[in-house]
Amino acid sequence: MSTLWARIEPLLARVQKPARYIGCEDGAITPRHDEFDDGGAVAWLLAYPDTYEIGLPNQGLQILYEILNERDDALAERTYAPWTDLDREMRAAGVPLFSIDTHRAAADFDILAFNLSSELVYTNVLNMLDLAGTPLHAVDRGDDDLVVIVGGHAAFNPEPLADFIDAAVLGEGEEVVAEITEVVRRWKADGRRDRAAMLRQLSRVPGVYVPSMYEATYDGERLLGIAPRFDDVPATVDKRTVADLGDWPYPKNPLVPLTEVVHDRLSVEVFRGCTRGCRFCQAGMITRPVRERPAEQVRTMIRDGLRTTGYDEVALTSLSTADFSDIEPVVRGVLEDAQDVTSVCDTLTISLPSLRVDAFTVGLAGEVNTGRRSGLTFAPEGGSWRLRQVINKLITEEDLYGAVESAFSQGWTRMKLYFLTGLPTETDEDTLGIAELARNCVAIGKRYTPRASVTVSLGGFVPKPHTPFQWFGQNTEEELRRKIDLVRDATRKMKGVNLKWHRPEASVAEGIASRGDRRIGAVIERVWRAGGTFQEWGEHFDVDLWTAAMEAEGLSMDRYVFRHRDDSEVLPWDHLTAGLHKDFLWGDWLDALAESGVEDCRWTPCYDCGVCTGYGIEHVVASPMAPAGGSQGTGQDLTRGGEVPVQLLPRQPERVGAQ
């Protein structure tokens, strides 16, 4: 095994951003090549199937990079998708996919593991497999070929990639990578004989799904089921969950890039999971339960991170950072600690990238305001209270206006409001409510500054697996475009309101990839072979490639994307679970149609979703701290607005379908 740098370096003079490919970041790890070369360690190549500037800040990849390199039996390097200019140069020069740490060929590693943050990167996965020189289809790989694994949020329905991958990891990777390493290490020690037997062993690792160990059956267009081919392969694969986030204070040495990346700052994860129960949100559903990092550990990670990186901005990350129990004292403590860290600038900026408007207070605004003020983003999601009850985003107009006033009163001048369109039961009145909310937010800001502005970001809704909306039929491209035009026309003359939107046709392609079965794999391959890489990038996305591929494979767009499902239908991901009972999700879907909201289960009795009671993590305990202004003794009937005994709120399995 040797570096390819001498062959790579001449190519970099002919590409747009050569710094993407040189590595050498502060925090980068030099692998132990003595163990690498003599076969004593399992070599992982961790891949992010998008550009370096998108992939480098990804914390999941950075965490596994450190964990694997701390092990005696493993080492890890990184690779990212080469942009189209380098792709052309590599193919012309016969240079394969390489790591950026030591510039070794992908084929020199044992495992090629992709982090999938979204579905439109699937064609990039195929392109990187092709560049790596490994057979594209898993069935064609032999004992000497790479073991191809995927993980991340988009891996919770890996069926569209089933033909191309050897395994998918469901859930969190900190612990499972050790078990995968052990299986592959034993296989290597045995001379890499009998790849099928090794994959069968992998399928018995909790949280690891091996598609080749399962068979899908169909009746015409209808999927009948996906079942294991062997008795010792589990019928259902459950996700992996790290019970105590405090046991995993990673990354300890964050990577600091030499070139500009999308989130060029120190990021510290304060908690995982979300129990707010937003019905559209796959991330909230699949990452349950809530597990908070100890407040003192957060401060330590930030203090150490600022010293080692030299950053002057820190982002406290989670699905809803303001819900962190100790958020205000932690922010206050971080600002105090920063005064003693000589490597940072005079002013530290604290970013809270994910904020619930009903958890953002004047106190929190005041604490964050101590540093430089960047923009704030709030996500009401729906334009009316009725629609927000449908999607269970239970924030009122008063919640939104209160948060906006808190921010403007503390010196902010701009903010972003994020909404979805194409949600279940959405009417034009709901859609036009988006413009009304934006106008009122600007009016509040004008009381404090003439420069007040609000940017409305509008995305097309794509129903995702493992959510209550997985049975919903997605809006067509034409309908999404019509709704965007409604908001555009309504905001056109509003001073201080700016509108941005996601391309409706891209939402349609995302729907194909996210809810498909194994037959969609041929569609993805056709799109890739037609040149369809970097489909998340506007300048490269081409919906015609997707519609043509669907037509060529004889697959109906309506069946895969636009039609509603019912509870009798087998879904392509039914044999995979995020810990949520399917009857719980169906009951929540019926509640959505009834415009009935449910409270955050951190502060109410259990709704029996399945995560905390049936999957080996009963000892996970939510923070005992009640939300600001709330009570753990009563619950709010969110449909009628009156106080009711809290014990009436939980929805038990026997009530499913009772609405």
The second-level CATH architecture of the domain at 5-232 is 3-Layer(aba) Sandwich
First and last CA, distance: 63 Å
Q: What structural class do the secondary elements suggest?
A: alpha/beta
* Overall strand count: 21
* Strand percentage: 5-15%
CATH topology of the domain at 5-232: Rossmann fold
Which CATH class of the domain at 5-232 applies here? Answer: Alpha Beta
The fourth-level CATH homologous superfamily of the domain at 5-232 is: Cobalamin-binding domain
Determine Rg (CA atoms, Å).
25 Å
Arrangement of strands in the largest sheet? 2-1-3-4-5-6
How would you sum up the global shape? globular
Short account of what is shown:
The chain has 659 residues and is an alpha/beta fold. α11 packs parallel to α12 (362-368) and α18 (520-529) packs across α19. The radius of gyration is 25 Å and the shape is globular.
Give an overview of the whole structure.
With about 650 residues, the protein is α/β, with parallel strands linked by helices. Among the domains are: about 5-230, Rossmann fold; about 375-565, Transcription Regulator spoIIAA (2-Layer Sandwich), CATH 3.30.750.200. Helix content is about 30%, strand content about 15%. It has 21 helices and 21 strands. The strands form 7 sheets. Strands 2-1-3-4-5-6 form a 6-stranded mixed beta sheet. Strand 16 (about 415-420), helix 15 and strand 17 (about 455-460) form a beta-alpha-beta unit. Helix 11 (about 325-340) runs parallel beside helix 12 (about 360-370) and helix 14 packs parallel to helix 15 (about 430-445). The chain is globular. Residues about 615-659 have low confidence and may be disordered.
